[in-house]
């Protein structure tokens, strides 16, 4: 899979072929661009590094700030002013941006610092990025878990320079820049330096080693060299007083001369940054090549956990890249929290739980369960120290503006880990914080009034109570289970029984239709609210556009009227955004897995493609990509409920390697699918030779491994039509429904 990854997928405006069938009726409210970057990354690592143009939202690319419609170009081609660190991955407007410690190779004076040069011959693979500037300098970057290694190949020049700017951060768009508050930097000896910058509340330290022994090293301030000094200190910087500052190695170069710059990072000071750099590079023989190879080996291991059989290389590239994007975030930085003194798991770039909790976190739990446990413990520590579980959590500090997106989303991760009996979490500790978190912000209104707005939070909170009850039941705290149960049953307040849809309210990036088909813990009762199974299927058919005309997508800088008309369509967002990403599987609960097969087929084969424009919308830290991984394998997790729903896979064969087992996915009657073929339908399923008459398995079944064999045909069958996935109005139904025993 490693060799099929294309890190450039999602870096440019969507250019997928014109959709047809039901997919033509889906409406895209969010920017039509993946917002990814092709820079060097490490699986769940602390550092990413890429060419810096200052564009929205990662710092790579050519687009201005945009939150709806077509992305707006700020330039006609890629021009970069250097190479920065800590880029986001596929996000939208997250308010805080990184791009710290810009490294700029130059052949001219500091007066030209900030000049944007055209980029040529870009190349990227997992863990490695390469580009050539129009100046003729070849630039290469690789990363380790807590480090970046740069290598620059200079042409012949009398004045080659490698400049590190400590004062930059953010984006080159209006209100996108960041200003350091405090900073210090110093040279330690020839080729060695260190420094720390407090940027957006985060004290980020760096230790640098440069092998340009024949270059002189100098500090600079306001684009002027500071002769004779070895240290700069800034105690109180303000935007009005900020002048750029940093350090530099400079001297004449011969054609083909390479300069390697190694940078270790830490949120706990320069000494720890030095330790981190030594851990990442100190024992490697071969410098840049060795670090690149080791990171490549780690990526190969991660990406080899899923293999698929397909004669279509483009389909393989989409799958491999989706898996790659799913394994980049969040950033794990063990023992690095700058906000409390104790060691242990620390995580950032949860951007955001609202995006990743349904698909990306279940995929992490399946493939890398120890990472999922580390994340759970990091979330517990954040809750203890800061008072609540975050919806979004960044290295940069600032008010959590994402609280409007959702409530109690971390609870789904804890419920999944608990039902899977994952070791390493103190469940007595966890349930205390899960319970307390449910009583904050929107939870207070829910407790007082039985409802809150945006009304989608009612579903979040009710399910959060159910998840907390799962954990309470696991430690046999039946009194707490009884206390939580009424609130877990409070979700009907979010629905209008006259329409069968969500009640009137405000909604985040959607409307009542987009939130009406969430996979609740009591779908049987939910369907009754809609008026029964036939009426529920009618609503779903309308939502997915059966029989509807094609829509016109938002254009450049769409106005409010245009967007409101789009939302009024009440249509599936077609993998352009996350709020309804699980809705295709709601059909299972009404006995229509054939409809799921049709919708998922259209989404998998029309909403994803190769090339920079291959994503329909923001990838959002792997949320959309992980959806593709699950959907193309014929599996879909119901987050928090220990359930996996089944549908026709996009591959004839696939293998999933988990921490302790292997899952072999096999088919009979498979016909290679494409965007222009009709869907296939499941005729029968066998797990380890035993017939599976229902449309679901437990996630525990996947973790145990074995062979899942799916027989496919070209017409719908009665498979799964008489059985319904479990509905769980009470926690006591868990063991019976999933086969999990305590």
Automatic annotation (TrEMBL):
Residues 272-714 form the Glycosyl hydrolase family domain. PANTHER family: PEPTIDE N-GLYCANASE PNGASE -RELATED (PTHR12143), PUTATIVE-RELATED (PTHR12143:SF43). SUPFAM superfamilies: Six-hairpin glycosidases (SSF48208). One of its GO terms (cellular component) is cytosol. This is Alpha-1,2-mannosidase, putative. One of its GO terms (biological process) is carbohydrate metabolic process. Residues 4-169 form the Glycosyl hydrolase family 92 N-terminal domain. It comes from the Bacteria. Pfam families: Glyco_hydro_92 (PF07971), Glyco_hydro_92N (PF17678). GO terms for molecular function: carbohydrate binding; peptide-N4-(N-acetyl-beta-glucosaminyl)asparagine amidase activity. It comes from Branchiibius hedensis. Gene3D superfamilies: 2.70.98.10, alpha-1,2-mannosidase, alpha-1,2-mannosidases domains, GH92 mannosidase domain.
């Amino acid at each position: 899979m490693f060799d099929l990854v294309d890190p450039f997928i999602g870096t440019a405006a969507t250019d997928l072929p014109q959709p047809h069938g039901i997919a033509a009726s889906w409406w895209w409210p969010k920017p039509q661009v993946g917002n990814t970057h092709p820079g060097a990354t490490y699986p769940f690592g602390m550092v990413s590094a890429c060419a810096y143009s200052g564009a929205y939202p990662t710092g790579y690319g050519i687009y201005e700030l945009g939150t709806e419609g077509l992305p707006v170009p700020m330039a006609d081609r890629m021009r970069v002013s250097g190479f920065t660190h800590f880029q986001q991955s596929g996000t939208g407007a997250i308010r805080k941006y990184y791009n710290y410690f810009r490294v700029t190779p130059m052949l001219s004076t500091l007066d030209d610092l900030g000049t944007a040069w055209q980029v040529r011959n870009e190349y990227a693979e997992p863990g490695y990025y390469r580009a050539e500037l129009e100046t003729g300098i070849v630039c290469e970057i690789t990363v380790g878990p807590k480090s970046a290694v740069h290598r620059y190949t200079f042409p012949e020049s009398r004045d080659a320079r490698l400049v590190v700017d400590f004062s930059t951060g953010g984006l080159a768009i209006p209100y996108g820049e960041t200003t350091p508050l405090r900073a210090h930097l110093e040279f330690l000896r020839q080729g060695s330096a260190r420094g720390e910058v407090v940027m957006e509340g985060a004290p980020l330290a760096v230790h640098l080693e440069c092998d340009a022994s024949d270059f002189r090293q100098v500090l600079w301030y306001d684009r002027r060299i500071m002769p004779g000094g070895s240290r700069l200190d800034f105690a109180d910087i303000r935007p009005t007083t900020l002048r750029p500052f940093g350090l530099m190695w400079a001297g004449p170069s011969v054609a083909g001369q390479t300069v390697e710059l190694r940078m270790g990072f830490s949120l706990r000071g320069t000494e720890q940054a030095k330790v981190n750099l030594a851990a990442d590079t100190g024992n490697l023989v071969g410098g840049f090549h060795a670090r690149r190879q080791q990171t490549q080996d780690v990526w190969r291991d991660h990406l080899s956990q899923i293999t698929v059989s397909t004669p279509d290389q483009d389909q393989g590239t989409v799958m491999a890249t989706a898996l790659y994007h799913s394994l980049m975030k969040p950033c794990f930085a063990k023992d690095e929290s700058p906000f409390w003194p104790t060691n242990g798991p620390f995580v950032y770039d949860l951007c955001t739980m609202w995006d990743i909790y349904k698909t990306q976190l279940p995929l992490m739990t399946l493939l890398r369960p120890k990472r999922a446990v580390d994340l759970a413990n990091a979330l517990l520590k954040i809750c203890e120290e800061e008072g609540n579980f975050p919806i979004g959590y960044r290295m940069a500090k600032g008010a959590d503006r994402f609280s409007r997106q959702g409530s109690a989303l971390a609870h789904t991760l804890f419920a999944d880990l608990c039902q899977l009996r994952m070791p390493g979490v103190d469940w007595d500790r966890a349930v205390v914080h899960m319970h307390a978190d449910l009583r904050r912000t929107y939870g207070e209104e829910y407790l007082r009034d039985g409802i809150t707005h945006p009304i989608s939070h009612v579903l979040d909170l009710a399910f959060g109570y159910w998840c907390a009850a799962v954990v309470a039941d696991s430690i046999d705290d039946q009194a707490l289970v009884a206390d939580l149960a009424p609130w877990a049953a409070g979700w009907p307040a979010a629905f209008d029984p006259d329409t069968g849809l969500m009640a009137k309210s405000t909604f985040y990036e959607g409307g009542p239709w987009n939130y009406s088909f969430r996979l609740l813990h009591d779908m049987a009762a939910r369907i009754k609210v809609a008026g029964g199974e036939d009426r529920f299927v009618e609503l779903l058919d309308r939502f997915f556009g059966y029989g509807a005309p094609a829509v016109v997508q938002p254009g450049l800088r769409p106005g409010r009227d245009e967007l409101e008309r789009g939302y009024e369509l009440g249509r599936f967002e077609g993998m352009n955004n996350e709020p309804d990403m699980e809705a295709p599987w709601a059909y299972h609960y009404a006995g229509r897995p054939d409809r799921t097969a049709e919708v998922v087929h259209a989404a998998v084969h029309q909403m994803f493609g190769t090339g920079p424009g291959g994503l329909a919308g923001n990838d959002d830290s792997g949320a959309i990509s992980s959806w593709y991984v699950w959907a193309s394998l014929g599996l879909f997790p119901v987050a928090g409920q220990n359930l996996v729903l089944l549908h026709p896979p996009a591959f004839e064969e696939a293998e999933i390697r988990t921490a302790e087992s292997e899952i072999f996915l096999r088919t009979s009657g498979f016909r290679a699918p494409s965007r222009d073929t009709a869907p296939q339908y499941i005729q029968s399923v066998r797990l380890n030779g035993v017939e599976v008459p229902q449309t679901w398995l437990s996630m525990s079944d996947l973790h145990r491994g074995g062979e899942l064999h799916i027989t496919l045909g070209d017409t719908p069958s009665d498979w799964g039509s008489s059985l319904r996935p479990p509905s769980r109005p009470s926690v006591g139904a868990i063991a019976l429904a999933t086969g999990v025993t305590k």
